[in-house]
Structures are given as structure tokens and as C-alpha cells.
């Protein structure tokens, strides 16, 4: 890859200027074009060209996500109609998708320019929410308003009625999303190599009370029943609808909808295994540090470990 165009996707609130300045300096040395969403133009140097949000992915060869997993998911959604590789720069606390730390960025960009990377394909959920088309790379969730009853909804798979839910929340997730809301609700961890969809109720009161694992060919239809509490609909943690007491969500699995840059797949796998092993440890950060090998503790130095979940 001789010349590349990089599109920058910024964390919505955190100070990303040190990372952006590093990228801008590198781009100037290598004559690489940089773009950013027009609404973020005040957060980047003048050398970064602002473009309309819908043109950012289309006009880029690679997207660089600066933030955590939430920022990465936003970058993947932005490119879902024309998937582009997304390189994640880690500013979050517990990222499963992001690839590099800020000190590693110049070397990572050199490898990106040289084409020395692989891409990891990710599936998404293509959802029809009351007539609106949305996509979710982690999960889509129906969540009750506190103090106003329960989510009450029926489940149909390929048109066949399976039963109903009465619960605090109802989460439909991809394998990547199985470590997020679905896991917190008691759902299983699904290998990223598996093509499946998981439906998990949180705090079920009656009806279906366990996770249902479905194949990629099956379509899911959730329908709110009369008397359901007002429901918020979250897509990858973002509220897209609030207060609905009727309506439906239709979900189908879409493979190969997103591409994530991997510079060292083995290192990424080892890091993810460590993060997964920490999820169920009810320990404080300083206690977690004592469990790490001595050489890794020295590398961490004074860096902050993720807070307990």
C-alpha cells in the first residue's frame, strides 16, 4: 500500500489531542492525507481536512479510531455499507477491540503504510426497529424504565413463536458482544470464531429465563406485548428510541460487516484472554496487580489498572 488516506474517528468527550498530533506529524512526514468529521474540526490541527460525516468512511482507505471499544464500534458502524479496515488506538479502560497503545502508534502507522497487517472480520446485527434500519456490532437491547414495570415481549425465530419474556432487559448480541451487556446479564461467552446470535434476558421474572443461542441463518423477531413497561432501545450502548410501549425489533445476522486491523494477532489473543480472566475476579485494582507476573508489573509501572466491574 503506497499511499493511504486515513480517516480519524475521535472519542466524543476525551482529550485526544496528543494522539491526533502524533498522527498529524507522522502524516506530514509521509504525505498522507487525513480527514475528520466536520463537527470535529475544532479538535484537530488545520492539516486535517474536515468532511461531512457520511463521506468520512467512503473517502478513507483506513479509519483510525481514537478511544475505547465504544469509539471502535462507532467507526465500524460508520463504514458498514463499505467496510474499511479500522485501527484502534487505546484510550479506554478495558478494550477488546482496540489494537495499539499511544506510544506504539508511530510504528503501527509505519506498518499500516507498508501493508504489514491483517484484518479481522466482524459480524453485525442488521436490525429493523419499528421501521428504522440500524446495525449493531455488539448488541441491541430492550431496557425497561426503572419503576415502571418489565419488558414484556414475545420471541419468534424464522416466523415460529418460541415464547415470551418478562424481564428487566432483553439483549441480542453477536459473538463479539457476548463479553458486554449479554455477559453481565448472565449470558455465555461466545468465541469470535463462532457465527451465532445470543438472546439473553436480564433478571427474568417469568417466561424464557435462559439464553438462547441461534445460528446465523435464523432471523429473530421481538414484539412488545400490551402492558409492557416503557422500553428504551440501545444499539451498542447508544439509545436510539426511548419510552416505547409497542412495536417490534427484527434482527438478522450479517457476516463480514466490519474489518479490524490486527498487527500482532497472537499478542491480541493473549491480551484478550487476560482481560477475560479478569472479568469474574471480585478484586480491587491493586489486588489484580499482585496477580500479574513480575515483569508485567514492571512494564505497567504506575499505569492504572481497569477498575473492578
From TrEMBL:
It is found in: Cytoplasm. Keywords: ATP-binding, Cytoplasm, Kinase, NAD, NADP, Nucleotide-binding, Transferase. One of its GO terms (molecular function) is kinase activity. NAD(+) binds at residues 69-70, 138-139, 166, 168, 203, 238. It catalyses: NAD(+) + ATP = ADP + NADP(+) + H(+). InterPro entries: ATP-NAD_kinase_N, ATP-NAD_kinase_PpnK-typ_C, NAD/diacylglycerol_kinase_sf, NADK. Its EC number is 2.7.1.23. This is NAD kinase. It comes from Micromonospora lutea. The lineage of its organism: Bacteria, Bacillati, Actinomycetota, Actinomycetes, Micromonosporales. The gene is nadK.
Amino acid at each position: 500500500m503506497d499511499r493511504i488516506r486515513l480517516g480519524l474517528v475521535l472519542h466524543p468527550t476525551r482529550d485526544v489531542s496528543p494522539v491526533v498530533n502524533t498522527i498529524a506529524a507522522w502524516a506530514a512526514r509521509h504525505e498522507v492525507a487525513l480527514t475528520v468529521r466536520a463537527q470535529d474540526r475544532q479538535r484537530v490541527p488545520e492539516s486535517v481536512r474536515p468532511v461531512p460525516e457520511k463521506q468520512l468512511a467512503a473517502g478513507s482507505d483506513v479509519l483510525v479510531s481514537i478511544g475505547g471499544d465504544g469509539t471502535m464500534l462507532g467507526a465500524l458502524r460508520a463504514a458498514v455499507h463499505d467496510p474499511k479496515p479500522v485501527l484502534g488506538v487505546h484510550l479506554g479502560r478495558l478494550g477488546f477491540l482496540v489494537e495499539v497503545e499511544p506510544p506504539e502508534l508511530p510504528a503501527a502507522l509505519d506498518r499500516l503504510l507498508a501493508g504489514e497487517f491483517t484484518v479481522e472480520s466482524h459480524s453485525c446485527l442488521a436490525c429493523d426497529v419499528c421501521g428504522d434500519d440500524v446495525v449493531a456490532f455488539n448488541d441491541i437491547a430492550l431496557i425497561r424504565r426503572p419503576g415502571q414495570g418489565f419488558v414484556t415481549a414475545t420471541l419468534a425465530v424464522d416466523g415460529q413463536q418460541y415464547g415470551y419474556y418478562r424481564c428487566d432487559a432483553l439483549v441480542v448480541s453477536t459473538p463479539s458482544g457476548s463479553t458486554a451487556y449479554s455477559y453481565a446479564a448472565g449470558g455465555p461467552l461466545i468465541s469470535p470464531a463462532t457465527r451465532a446470535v445470543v438472546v439473553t434476558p436480564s433478571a427474568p421474572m417469568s417466561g424464557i429465563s435462559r439464553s438462547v443461542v441461534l445460528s446465523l441463518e435464523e432471523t429473530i423477531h421481538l414484539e412488545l406485548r400490551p402492558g409492557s413497561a416503557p422500553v428504551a432501545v440501545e444499539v451498542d450502548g447508544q439509545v436510539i428510541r426511548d419510552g416505547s410501549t409497542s412495536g417490534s425489533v427484527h434482527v438478522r445476522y450479517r457476516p463480514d460487516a466490519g474489518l479490524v486491523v490486527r498487527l500482532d494477532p497472537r499478542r491480541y489473543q493473549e491480551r484478550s484472554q487476560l482481560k477475560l480472566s479478569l472479568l469474574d475476579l471480585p478484586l480491587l485494582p491493586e489486588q489484580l496487580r499482585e496477580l500479574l507476573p513480575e515483569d508485567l508489573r514492571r512494564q505497567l509501572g504506575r499505569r492504572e489498572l481497569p477498575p473492578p466491574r
